[in-house]
Amino acid sequence: MRRKSLLSAILAGVALPATLIGAHDFTRVAGSDLDRIRGDVNRVGDSFRLVMKRENGKKAAASTRESS
Fold first, then answer.
1. 20 and 27 in contact (C-beta within 8 Å)?
2. 36: CB partners within 8 A, 6+ apart
3. pTM of the full structure
4. CA atoms within 13 A on the CB side of 57
């Protein structure tokens, strides 16, 4: 009896990672790979433009305060 429960516990422990990892269902955006990459590059570029605009605005505001 004890050997049977030990064996079942070992097998359950070995099978545990398989149940945790399972298959992932990621949503797939329509279009080709190249279209999706272009979309990613456009979004990153938009983010960079936004940050540069914000930082340039801060620098301009700081320079007008210093000259006043």
1. no
2. 29
3. 0.48
4. 6
